[in-house]
Every structure is written in C-alpha cells, then in structure tokens.
Design goal:
- It is a single chain.
- The chain is mainly α and about 400 residues long.
- It folds into 3 domains: about 190 residues, MFS general substrate transporter like domains (Growth Hormone, Chain: A, Up-down Bundle), CATH 1.20.1250.20; about 80 residues, no CATH class; about 90 residues, no CATH class.
- The protein is built from 19 helices and no strands.
- The protein is globular and about 65 Å long.
C-alpha cells in the first residue's frame, strides 16, 4: 500500500526523534574520539616498555582485538533486548557500562590492565547498543509517518559522521597538548551527555516489549535443517573444521586475521550446508520462517564479506595512522587527524548521492538497491587497499611520500 501525497504532507515527525539523534551524535563523538587516538597512545605511552621493532605489531593487535569486541557484542546486545529487557532498557544500561569504560581509560592511563579493562567495557557497551539504536529509531514510526523514516535515517547517519569528523580533528590535538587523561576523559563526558539525553526522552519513546524465546528463529531453523544429516551437515562440519584450523594458526596469522577468517568460514560453509537441505525444516517450523531463512541465505555470501570489509576499514585507525607517521606533512598536522577526511566525505556524499547521483542512475534505468550499494562499497574498498599498498611500497623503498596521497584510498 503506497502513501498518498496528502498523507505524506500531513505526516509529523515523532517528537522523540531529536533525543535519539542527539544521543547518537554525542555517542559517536565519544567513540571515535577515543578510537582515533588509541593507536597513537599505545605507541607513544602505554606500550613503551615493548621494544620499538615489536611495538607497532602489538599496538595493532590491541587495537583490532578491541574492534573485534565492538563487532562481536552486538550479538549479546540484540539477544538481551529481544529476549529479556527490550531495546531502551538495554541501550540505557549498556550506555552506563560504556561510560565506566571511558572512566577507566582516563584513570588508568599508566596501567595496562586497567586500561585494557576500560577497552573491554567500551567494546561491550558500544557493541551492545550498536544493533539496537537504529531499530529503536524505526520503532518510533507508525503507518501515518513512516514516509519520514528515510529522512531520519539519513540525518542519523549524517550526525554519526558529524561526530566522527570533529572527534578526528580535535582529539589528536587534545592528546598532544593536554595528555591522555584529558584526551580520554573528554569522550567520557560526551558519552555521559549522550546517556543523559537518551534518559531525558524516556517518557516520549515508543517501547516495543521483548519478544521472548522464538522457537522459529533463524538459528533454530538452520539447526533443524543441518541436524537431519546428509551433505549439508558435511559441508557445515567442514567449515567448522577449517575455522578451527584457522584459529590454530593464530601464531602465524595473528589473532585478528585468524578470528576473522574463522568467522567467514563458519558463515560461508554453514550457510551453503543449510541451503542444501533447508526444506527438511518444513513441518518442524512454519513455511514463512523457512522462507525467511532462505531469503537470508541468498545474501549470506555478501554478508560474509562484511567481516573482512570492516576488518580492513578499521585499519585506517591503526595501520594507516602508522603509515602516515612515515609520510611528509606540516609540523602542526597529527597523523590521526587524516581520519577526519572519511566522515567529511560521507557528510558531503550523502546529500550528493540522494539528490544527484541515485536519481540520475535511476533515470538511466539502473535501480540502486541496498545490496548494489554494499557490493559497490566492497569493490571500492578493494581499490582503496591496493592504493594504500602501493603507498607503503614507495615508503619501504625510501621514497619521500606526502600525506596528501592518503586522500586517494580515503576517497575510495
């Protein structure tokens, strides 16, 4: 059913939306504010006891282990919200955990154990709320104003990059001139403000109750299909064995690469195995549940690529920062400030894509779907890493390379 022009005109923006967007802007500043100076702090302060030739590898290992936590804990946050507490209570309480993590970073700047515990709390808090805030926004709309949801999501994504942009510019300067306690404490203040803004709108939100246990969830349908035996179970078991082998090679591959490869193997082989005999789940589960799982499995290969995509993307806050340290740049410019370019481009490209590029492509007969956008993004990410690799080869050969060259992979 389409929305009539009159209904679209009469639709009103939910009054609680500004609270959620304000919360997200402050939270993203706090996250990117600490994340974008983390590698520099590890290299120049916390890990000084480690020999210099080993320090870069250790700093990258710590950073990406933290990032893995950020992308793992959404599973926990989503499960807690859906099964027990609902979205708002889960977001609020995990936000308090998030604040405690920032406090640990500011207090334990000279203690490896205390600092790492703070990183754990931030990965738990940030990761736990990650899948909930976006869907919580969707809960605030009904049939009468659903036409406004896309505008809100565009504003939502824009404010994320707004917070990231200023955090990337300001926090390296704060770290240099005021020290780690202030540099990690300021994002903590912003996270506390984000939590306060969220709490202030608590009486205005639409609250969806938790759904409780679902015997026909995605995982139960997949397990029913696989446990019936046959070729599908063999394929899925092969994926588990290969994943176990990958984890066993952690010493040579490194923790981050081994874990990411293991996740891709389990998702890829498990998805193929389940799709081979998914119809065996019919009768045990409703047809609509089985058909829903089949629809997800059709795009599972693309989602399996999301893991390496984000693993590569987040190296812009570790490997690319260390690369930028080797490049020529103005004396006032800090290497981590280069990360501000990415959110700046996103803020510019969101209105350009929606107002110019996508309408032009659709006039040419090319429908711009979400999956096509994701596929194009993954392809461009590949080109970005080729460009970054070429820059590193130049540096390894002893060439003087301007930091301006990092604009090329950033633009991809």
């Amino acid at each position: 059913m389409t929305t009539s022009p009159h209904a679209a005109t009469a639709a009103k923006m939910p009054p609680q939306i500004p609270y959620i967007i304000g919360n997200e802007g402050c939270e993203r500043f706090s996250f990117y504010g600490m994340r974008n100076i983390l590698t520099v702090f590890l290299m120049t302060s916390l890990l000084l006891a480690i020999p210099e030739d080993l320090r870069k590898a250790e700093a990258k290992e710590v950073f990406h282990t933290f990032v893995i936590g950020v992308y793992f804990f959404p599973l926990l946050g989503g499960w807690l919200a859906d099964r027990f507490f609902g979205k708002y209570p889960t977001i609020f309480w995990l936000s308090l955990v998030y604040c405690a993590g920032h406090a640990c970073l500011a207090i334990f700047e000279d203690s490896i154990k205390g600092f790492y515990f703070g990183l754990f709390l931030i990965s738990l808090g940030s990761g736990g709320i990650k899948p909930l805030v976006t869907s919580f926004v969707g809960d605030q709309f009904d049939k009468g104003n659903r036409s406004l949801a896309q505008k809100v999501y565009d504003a939502f994504y824009w404010i994320i990059n707004f917070g990231s942009f200023f955090a990337s510019l300001l926090m390296p300067v704060v770290l240099k001139h005021f020290g780690a306690s202030v540099a990690f404490g300021l994002p903590g203040v912003l996270m506390a403000l984000a939590t306060l803004i969220l709490w202030s709108g608590r009486k205005k939100y639409v609250h969806q109750p938790p759904r409780g246990a679902n015997p026909h969830s995605f995982m139960w349908v997949v397990w029913t299909a696989l446990k019936s035996g046959g070729l599908g179970m063999t394929v899925a078991a092969l994926g588990v064995l290969l994943a176990a082998y990958s984890l066993g090679q952690m010493g040579s591959l490194g923790f981050v690469a081994a874990v990411c490869l293991a996740l891709v193997l389990v998702m890829g082989f498990g998805g193929i195995g389940a799709s081979l005999q998914l119809d065996r789940a019919r009768g045990v589960h409703p047809d609509e549940a089985v058909d829903g799982v089949r629809a997800v499995l059709r795009v599972l290969v693309l989602f399996a690529l999301v893991t390496p995509f984000w693993s590569l993307f987040d190296q812009k806050a570790s490997t690319w920062v260390l690369q930028a340290d080797q490049m020529s740049k103005p004396a006032w410019f800090q290497s981590s400030m280069m990360q501000a370019l990415n959110p700046l481009l996103v803020m510019l490209l969101i209105p350009f894509n929606n107002l110019v590029l996508y309408p032009a492509l659709e006039r040419m007969g090319l429908k711009v779907t979400a999956l096509r956008r994701m596929g194009a993004g993954i392809a461009l990410a590949g080109f970005a890493w080729i460009a970054a690799g070429v820059l590193q080869l130049w540096l390894d050969e002893g060439a003087t390379v301007s930091i301006v060259w990092q604009v090329l992979p950033m633009r991809c």
